[in-house]
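Lecture 7 notes. Example A: sequence first, then its structure tokens.
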Amino acid sequence: MSGALGIIAGGGGVPLRLAAGAARAGRPVFVLALEGFADPADYAGHPHEVVRIGAAGRILERLRAHGCRQVVLSGAVKRPSFLALRPDAGAVGLIARIGRAAMGGDDTLLSAVVRILGEEGFEVVASQDVLKDLLSVPGPVGALVPDAPATADIRRGIEVQRALAAADVGQAVVVQQGLVLGLEGVEGTDALLERVGPLRREGPGGVLVKLLKPGQSRIVDLPTVGVTTVRGAAAAGLRGIAIEAGGTILVDRAAVAAAADAAGLFVVAIEPDRFPAQEPAAGA
């Protein structure tokens, strides 16, 4: 599609990769760096502006002014309270249109945001539609693979995450020796890893399992794993990370693999519905 690609950018490296990839492909880019989440200095090489997350009216106006018809929502954003939002006049109207979804879980709210953007004449596209190599493929990311005890923890993590995510609560769970050490809530994965570190038990370390929620849209808020995740898992005493193949964004696959190998962790992309029902043989 012609016209500039609008990128509403939160924190992390994915929005920057999207901007660079689109620019390499010859497509104009306009970045709205969300204040307090994205670092505007990262986008010095691209047309960009800083905007408050509550300034929805201005966001729409600036996207239109730059000829954006397609928009990507990318990057980490912590959901603000309504009081902290400080909505502008345009946002007040949009919140009324979003209705009760504003009080729901993140997936419910984001689905409503995508719908409203569509009603405003924008097409919200997925990050992986802009950069085809973002998503993980089945198999190990680094040199290490899970053994039988880790496989059992992954299987337990899948069961727990499915029950948790059905309520639109979170994407990640940490399991060690069958015991759930922590569930992801509003704090995000990095904070979850910080929280479970002091809870680790003696013996083999646990596993972070991070998956799509059942029925979750693949347009926004896909699970994302990067070097920071690997370092957080290592600091928490975990022995590995399991992510969903085809449903998880790897911020930089080579860097993730190198960081995992250096930390002695496995990172493996799995297909949850086909994950082995039986533990592998010892040493597998």
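Example B, a different protein, same format:
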Amino acid sequence: MDLLNNMRVFVRVVDCASFTAAADALDLSTAQVSRLVADLEQHVQARLLQRTTRRLSLTEAGERFLLRSRQILEEMEEATAEARGAHLKPSGRLRVHSMNGLGVLITPLIARYSELYPDVVFELTLSQRNPDPLEEGHDVVISIAHELADSQLVAQSIGQIYSVLCASPAYLQRRGVPHTPLALNEHQCLRMVDPLYSDEWVFQDEHGEQALSPAKTFQCNVAESMVKASEAGMGVSLIPFYTATRPLSDGTLLRLLPAWRPRQRTVYALYPSRRFLDAKVRTWVDFLKAELPRLFAEHEAVMDDPRHWA
């Protein structure tokens, strides 16, 4: 039995004060309406209506049940309208996960998005891993990968990133400037410990690739700490380009081997489903697709400025 539907029929019968009138309003037969009310009474184990040839009247149990039925049906209508509205108007809590450095970078974008959609409340989680949105309850995961494994998640490409080699002026004055990737074997190389970074450093230019496995010296899993180690003159580091922007602009680091670029990786927005996509997820992903490449371009302008090269 469809309990909610039977409750709607019961309420309509009371409002119309007639089985026949209710049947006309609901586009049902009088027999169908009578059966649905009878099924409802059987379900609640109480008579709800007193029926005579001339009129209908509510029993005491029917009066109580009518009041609660109206409340339940109104709440259901409100809940349905709210759920439908979630696909139309961005609102509610938006749970976003991102890798640490990239999450810090996009925080100003969150502020700008919030100005456009003030009814959305952000819950940003940062870590050095790519979680499963379905298992951990994230609405959107901003992931970085060379390529994605097969999954049922929707993956939207929202930008490309790469890393740059950097060292402090003081270090380069002591040890000299490397002019090829292989020359890095003669230098102190600081290593990122991160699932996205392999033990090999692979560089590409117009002629091909060169790969090397730097000796393990200082290791760290946070790019911002790697910047500090490099600024302190500990050695050469390979860090995300957007993390290098500030120290390059300040002159505390210099970019090395600008003609050689490590392999690019793609930034993805991952979310569970396209069907009935929540408006806050849709608008946030669309916003990232438009704004993140522009933000990356601002950082790349610093990377490509020869004034910041060794």
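Note on Example B: The chain is about 45% helix and 25% strand. The chain has a mean pLDDT of 87.
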